[in-house]
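[step 3/7] fold_predict: job queued, chain A
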Amino acid sequence: MLTNGALKYHYHPAKGWLNDPNGLCDFGGQHHVFYQYCPDSETPTVMKWGHAVTRDFVSWQELGVAIDTDMPYDCRGVWSGTAIVKDGRVYAFYASIDSSGRQTISVAVSDDGSHFEKYAGNPVISEYPPEGSGDFRDPAVMESGGRYYMLVGSADTRKGSGTLLLYESGDLLSWSYSGVLMEYPDSESCECPSFVKLKDGYLVAVSNSPKSGGHYFEVMYGQFDGRRFTPGIVSHFQKGPDEYAGQIYKDSRGRAILISWVSGWRYRPREKCIGCLSLPLELTVADGGIKAYPVEELRHLVGPDGCVTDAYVKETYVNGGEEVYIELTQRPE
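[step 4/7] structure written:
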């Protein structure tokens, strides 16, 4: 059986289902990784936020459920989102799913990075705009120029396009709708965005589901004027069926770090594969491209062939180039 128990370097919980990385942040001297989690099932059921911390991306401490489904507005799921640190507190934004399946945006706050209290005014965004739909989820929050901006993945069903919806706030709690940041024609929906300021520009990442089938993940670098994002570089440096829902965050050193979900969709249910997270990659922008390579703490794992082999997860990186290929292999006979 293909099991996550054999993995050495790719984070995974001891049991249960894992998918999208959530709420990535550097707080209190540790890297905090949250993720979609079903602790008592090896198939996705009612999602919660799992939690793990690390100082070196090699040794991980699993901390269990951080945000649970204990309120009427999120009783059917605490879905994907991001986190931002403000005034020594962690604000975790997530898609909250109620008993009817309605998707809204909520926030929980923590003073220690582990124990969260949900905001009494949740959901902070309770209705989608005309350019959105019932697919309204995965808030990505960042700060720029003293203002806070949020991207929400959605779809404009009138036009048959996926949309990244933009919201703005001065305090992280009261949000106003600013319009469509980006639109993807002939798309079922956009989801799992990231929004990060890096040097003189901005990184935007999105997972998209074209109507033609399949899915893909892309990262863009460009300019943001407070209303629209103009990409100068569009990169699909992570390819393959086993990479999705990547999330970018900045650490205390100013590095833009990407962690994705290695899903193993095509191996289920023939093999037991409940998913893991990719090795963290540092993103840089140089020579007209977005480049990705394992963070400094993990580069000793990269072999002379450019691969990191962790049991049955094989990741291949091109140092100094744009392409990163990921392959999830099966157990040899």
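[step 5/7] annotate
The domain at 4-299 is CATH 2.115.10.20 (Tachylectin-2; Chain A).
The chain has one domain: 4-299.
exit 0
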